[in-house]
């Protein structure tokens, strides 16, 4: 609503909401609760994310830039100041210019080393596992090993199975009756 059409209750409600947001952001960090991994989001970061998801940050930008909403400028300034309380100006300026600096370079190097290690492991696994099919497929004549009659044995499996060859290969084993089993 325009500021001329607002009731006194609406003005009080807006002010109370802004004060609530300011007070929530003003809560100091609890060191015992924020002892997570370096990449974990702190409570402050999660509150900022919730404000962003709810669209409150866009509303604050509107209140800060609208000429008719100047009465809230001090509250909005305080909220924005609290939003950036854990940030250093140098880091923000570097991020704003598009150069992430040393941290970005470090992350890139770390990702590159991880990628190279993964590729080396993949190559090692490929060398260890046998190829999908034996390249020595076909039929082979085993000289010196006689089959039925005077002919040499013809072996139809891959060469890697040759060591386990017996004349009984592929035959159904003879069933022993139950009363003759020992």
UniProtKB/TrEMBL annotation:
It is found in: Nucleus. This is TIM protein. Keywords: Cell cycle, Nucleus. GO terms for biological process: DNA repair; DNA replication checkpoint signaling; replication fork arrest. Its main location: nucleus. GO terms for molecular function: DNA binding. The keyword Nucleus applies. It holds the Pfam family TIMELESS. Transmembrane segments: none annotated. Residues 2-141 form the Timeless N-terminal domain. GO terms for cellular component: replication fork protection complex.
